[in-house]
Design goal:
It contains nine helices and no strands. By secondary structure, it is mainly α. Helix 2 packs antiparallel against helix 3. The longest helix is centred in the last third of the chain and has 31 residues, at 168-198. The two termini are 26 Å apart.
Length: 269
């Protein structure tokens, strides 16, 4: 991936200097994203309890799995994106505007999925009634908005080198690049499902997403895992070069996992 060159010697901290700590600037938009993200995570955990009490299938188009996994995933991704974008060279107003729309979109996505779970109907690819069609289309449009917003951040990470401790620029760029793979796989799942639904193959549409689900799940969280590793390493006494190499190895391992998920998708498509 990009940013594969080790840091130059003049970037090394002086002997005895504490490593640069991971930062999370507390601005209004960061507080909003953190709050909304935590609410979504709590919602996911609450529905895990609902599943334990109510039972029912874990897999399938209608299950408590969706509000659980989507609440946890969207909540964690929102918090991670707010933190990671603080290392991008993006104007504060533009960043705040993009994060505000992103937070609202996350609420819409999780809210729609949760609503349909409580109604006992599929959240995606359900065109049985006008209301269900409206929810499905809203979620699809929301997914497109997610791709656009996160695409802007991804481009910004490659246009200008992100700031941060050793390994953070590589982690941020790699995280966004892999995240886009996850978003693209989600878009393919929705597109394929819509085609099958509109041609009268509803059940096939629900099952058509299975091959891409591992790729989708693995790729979405690179923007959290890799920068978090770089942040944790910044608190160790290791040299800058050693920390950069550790992030590079982790990035390579994550890349291997993504390639493996792609191969699985191709073999089971």
């Amino acid at each position: 991936m990009a940013d594969t060159h080790a840091p130059t010697p003049h970037l090394r901290p002086a002997a005895g200097t504490a490593p640069a700590p991971v930062r999370f600037p507390v601005h209004r938009i960061d507080t909003l994203c953190l709050t909304v993200g935590l609410v979504l995570v709590v919602s996911g955990l609450a529905h895990l309890l609902v599943f334990a009490v109510d039972g029912g299938p874990w897999n399938g188009p209608v299950s408590w799995r969706k509000p659980v996994t989507f609440g946890l995933s969207f909540g964690a991704t929102l918090v991670a994106t707010a933190w990671v974008t603080s290392y991008l060279r993006v104007g504060p107003r533009l960043r705040a505007a993009l994060l505000g729309v992103f937070a609202a979109d996350c609420v819409v996505e999780v809210g729609g999925i949760t609503l349909q779970a409580w109604r006992g109907v599929p959240s995606h690819l359900d065109m049985e009634t006008p209301f269900d069609t409206a929810v499905s289309l809203t979620l699809a449009v929301g997914g497109a908005v997610l791709v656009a917003l996160l695409g802007v951040f991804a481009v910004a990470s490659f246009r200008h080198r992100p700031t941060g401790p050793a390994g953070m620029p590589l982690a941020v760029r790699s995280g966004f690049a892999v995240l886009l793979v996850g978003l693209a796989s989600g878009a393919v799942m929705i597109a394929r499902g819509v085609v099958l639904t509109r041609t009268g193959h509803q059940e096939a549409a629900y099952h058509s997403t299975a091959p891409l689900k591992p790729l989708h799940a693995v790729s979405l969280h690179a923007v959290l895992v890799l920068p978090a590793l770089a942040g944790l390493l910044s608190r160790t006494p290791w040299s800058e070069r050693t920390r950069w190499r550790a992030v590079a190895v982790a990035t390579g391992c994550y890349g291997v996992a993504v390639v493996g998920a792609v191969v699985w998708a191709a073999l089971t498509w």
